[in-house]
Amino acid sequence: MGELFRSVPMTMIRLLIPNEAVHETVHEIGNLGKINFKDLNSTLSAFQRPFTAEVRRLDEIEKKLNFFRAHLDEIKVKDIPKDRWLTKEQEKEILLEDLEALEGVFEDTENDLKELLKNEEELKVQQLGLFEQILLIEKVNDFLLNNDETLEIDFPKEHKTKEVDLISVPLLEMDKSSSDEMKTKTGLQYVSGTIPRERVPILERILWRTTRGNMFLRTAEIETKIKEFHTNKFVTKTAFLIFYQGETIGDKIRRVCTSMGSNLYNIPENQNERNRTIENLRNQLQDLKDVIVKSKNHKVESLILLRVNFPIWYERIHKEKAIYSTMNLFRYDQAKKCLIAEAWIPEDTVADVRHCLAKSTEASGAMIPTILDIIENPPKSSVPPTHFPVTEFQKGFQAIIDSYGIANYREVNPTPFTIITFPFLFGVMFGDFGHGILLTIFAIWVLMNSKKLGIKAQTDEIIKILYDGRYIIFMMGLFSVYCGFIYNEIFAVSMNWFGTCWEPRNNSTVLDLKTKTCTYPVGVDPSWAGTTTELLYADSLKMKLSVLLGISQMLLGCVLSLLNHIHFKKWLNIWFEFIPQMLLLLSFFGYMCFLIIYKWVTNWSHREGQTGGIHLITTLINMFLKPMGMKSDQIMFKNQNAIQLVLILIFVLTIPLMLIPKPLILRHRAKKRKKEMGFQRLNEVSSSEDDNDDKNKNKRQDHDHEEEFQFSEVMIHQLIHTIEFVLGSISNTASYLRLWALSLAHSQLSKVFWEMIFLTTAKMEKIGFISIFIGFCVWAVLSVIVLLVMECLSAFLHALRLHWVEFNSKFYVADGSIKFEPFSFKEIKQEAKNYRS
């Protein structure tokens, strides 16, 4: 927990890596996963870096991997026998295999897979075509064998003959006659095909306008739905038969049909030929099915081979790309013939890094070892990264803080406190024993299925949010159960856990205490439920609790700011920020908390003139308006007027104490430092030390980065800070009243759903069980949607705001630090492992 409270101490190092050992060294560093490299080529573009060609080459190989991955879902891991998976020795061989040889394997595998997919597509298209053609011929037979139908075409005058003026030929009779004879007499031809049903009206209109009515269209819907290959959807198609005269019109008809997405087929004119064609097509279709089955088996075998090799291929290629991308951060030294790298590492890992470098030198066979140089005084421009070692449980809470801002180096981390306060404040707003149980059960289900959800989270953003926040949801559920137990609410119904302290007075509706010393052991007494003063009691209790919790958390934030000031040795901030802030908060808001608790623990029934208690709001207003003139019936304790006057004076004096002294002292120090810097620069100019010395270089860089002191800017900044804290203390306290508002809203909504929906339907005696069942279903659905989903999200967002604005603003700076991101293969190995499961 100590490392979570403050970030891990960092050490800056410089590495001098020989050219022949650089690849192996970076590989071992990736396995170690504890070095965060700096970019020494930040002034160079991506195309000017030394290993750009290798990264581009690996990008092309990665495209092949992405192509393979798109087809892996067709083969499930559980369907692959265990003996087909690669052994550890085989995986090690692939990891050590030459990259060019592996690239050749990828090229061959990609070509084979593309050929298989192309053949599969062609076979399926051919299969669908044969099936569609069979259905079309059957419909054409229905057209031509219908004796009741006649074909009437009114030809243009220039095409009329003596033998044929108006054709009125039964279709069956036309088919029985010789086709050649018909063509000779009429020149009649036809086009047949299929088209999606919704496009038929459009096709008919376009054909009519294109041919000027010189065609005859017959359509019939195909009852069997046909699956389209490209969309993989079943569609309803319509068979059509178009009669026309003349090749010119025929070409127009074909072009229109093709443009409308129809499939055209050549249909024999003779009935016997059509029957034989159907028989042949069915035989071809059966043969094609056998070919498709064999092709599919071959594809499955190829995909199994791809599936068992893909995880290790993925790991190897992504490791290589990560290595060369990291090497692009190094600077090449022409004189020393080596690569220079600078990095940050945790202080306690120096020995591990040295061992890693020695191991890489031995593995690469380099004659010159990699040199590690610890930079004792890094320049101020090089800000150490912030690193908090977190467990899976802590990771979600740390993500909440990181969303607000990355902590400054060695600054107090709010996460240890957020782990408790965040779900607790959520529980205060969401407090219901029943809803908390349901939320906890859901969180337990997510935790039990975290392995499966972790795999899905890589591609689904919603599941990723659920997976990352699984422990947060679990804690929120537990604290909701706790607060619901304190509120004594389970689905808006109070439970008499320990026996009430109240009893009816002479069988009336008025309740009296059983004994004067009776106290309900835990939480709210159930007798308050259903009384006329229930809402007033809950309103007062929850509002005062919200104020107490809010001011306590703000005071905790101020105490944490003291720890920051002590650690960074900012003594001015202690005297002229922390102390005045604490006095300001305690003099008014702390006093308000004292009055709340004092009123709770005092028995007002024995006080003359104050049996109903004292209104705290009136007391606090009169504290400023009438500090010495409060009436006796408003006095809560002895010497209250004098104490309040002292508190007001402290409250007022803290404001100039925060505003004035600090800027004046900083100006005095700046003038003094300016004189000292003048003498120091003269000494540096006359110094004969080597300019390449790291210590002197860092000093000069520090001088360059020092800004000239501007008193006006410091004064304005302090003025803004003072106004923000004074006004913020009031607004922040009021902001914590959202705990009261949301808790009350949640309770009343639960009560409305229970009484107005479930109990109302349960009282319908005429309908009986049916009304109870319907009422329960409606109540359950509304409870889940409104209370468990919407209210849960609302309480989460409000708890988030209270931590980001009201709590963190008191001590958490987070003004531009960088997160410690070591070069590591951990994520790559984890993703490769996921492909095996």
UniProtKB/TrEMBL annotation:
Keywords: Coiled coil, Hydrogen ion transport, Ion transport, Membrane, Transmembrane, Transmembrane helix, Transport. Residues 694-703 have a biased composition (Basic and acidic residues). Its main location: membrane. Pfam families: V_ATPase_I. Residues 683-703 are annotated as: Disordered. It is a multi-pass membrane protein. The chain crosses the membrane at residues 424-448, 469-487, 545-563, 575-598, 642-665, 767-790. InterPro entries: V-ATPase_116kDa_su (IPR002490), V-type_ATPase_116kDa_su_euka (IPR026028). It is found in: Membrane. Residues 58-126, 271-298 form a coiled coil. Essential component of the vacuolar proton pump (V-ATPase), a multimeric enzyme that catalyzes the translocation of protons across the membranes. Required for assembly and activity of the V-ATPase. Belongs to the V-ATPase 116 kDa subunit family. This is V-type proton ATPase subunit a. It comes from Anaeramoeba flamelloides.
